[in-house]
Each structure stands twice: as C-alpha cells, then as structure tokens.
Design brief:
- The chain is mainly α and about 180 residues long.
- The protein is elongated and about 55 Å long.
- The relative contact order is 0.08.
C-alpha cells in the first residue's frame, strides 16, 4: 500500500520534475511546464499529481488537446470516468480523429461497460494506426464482453504478440 504523499516524495528528486518545478516556482503560469510535469507524473503513476498539473495547464489553455487527452487517460485509470469521457470528447471535438484520444475514450467506454462504444472507438483508432496495441487489446476485451469471444481472443493474441506487456498494462488500469 502506497501512502498518498509517497509519489510526491519519491519523485521530488527526479531531475525532470525538479527542473519543471523550479520553472513553475519562477512562473506558476508556465503552461508548457505544467503540462510536461503532468506527463512525467502520469508516466510514473502519480496520477493525482498529474491531474492537478493538467488542470492547471487547461486553466491556462482550455483548448490544449494534448492536455485534455492526457487528463482523460489519467482520469480513466483512476476511475473518474464521467470527467474522463468529457475530456476525451472535448479533445476529439477540437481535433477529430485524434488517435490517442480515440484510444483513451475506448478505455473509458470499456471501463464504463459501454462495450459497443468502446469497440467503435478502438476500431476508429485502429483504422488510423493498425499497430496500436492498446486499442487492439482493448477491442479484444470489449468484443469478448460483447459475446464475440473468438474475435476478441484473436485481437488479444495479436496485441500480446506485438507487446507482451499489454495485459499487465491493462490490469494496471483496472481492466482484466
């Protein structure tokens, strides 16, 4: 069990975070530094800190599609599914066919039990990037949950062949 402040303490010595935090001490409205630090926090699993930084970044530029997509993804991982869906929808409104936002919205829909919507999002993402393992794996799970077990197993097998860690990644998102 991690205590809530442990990610902040563990990451305080990270050189990238240190440098971005110093930039933000000089200029709290440095949108790029907030966004970048949010990305680093998200990549290290410090999701609450990532959301805070993406919130700050979006306060400064509400139309930042990358920040919207990243906050969508982080919110989906932590189970804030309504907010996540809103963020992904806005990112896709601003940048239609944004493959990463389609992939993240697919995850949100999958976690929300909206399997048909998840399949549609993953299909759209895979049309743009057929090698997107997260969409292929997610679509496999959604298809299985929707009753197309053989098709789902094929997607899952193909995704695992491209990325042997994809099942663990999805398990870390709370999807089994």
């Amino acid at each position: 069990m991690k205590n809530e402040s442990s990610p902040a303490l563990a990451l305080a010595d990270d050189p990238t975070i240190k440098s971005l935090t110093a930039k933000l001490a000089d200029n709290p409205d440095d949108q790029n530094a907030l966004y970048r630090r949010g990305q680093v926090y998200a990549s290290k699993g410090a999701y609450d800190l990532a959301i805070k930084d993406f919130d700050g970044s979006l306060r400064l530029n509400a139309k930042d599609v990358e920040a919207l997509k990243n906050r969508c993804w982080v919110r989906s991982v932590v189970g804030e599914l309504k907010g996540a869906l809103k963020d992904c929808n806005e990112a896709l409104r601003l940048r239609p066919n944004f493959v990463d936002a389609l992939d993240s919205r697919g995850l949100v829909n999958l976690k929300s039990g909206m399997t048909k919507n998840a399949i549609a999002d993953f299909d759209a993402a895979l049309k743009i990037n057929p090698r997107l393992t997260s969409s292929l794996y997610g679509r496999g799970i959604a298809k299985k949950r929707n009753g197309a077990v053989a098709e789902g197993d094929l997607d899952i097998t193909n995704a695992k062949a491209m990325d042997p860690n994809i099942a663990k990644e999805y398990a870390d998102y709370g999807v089994h």
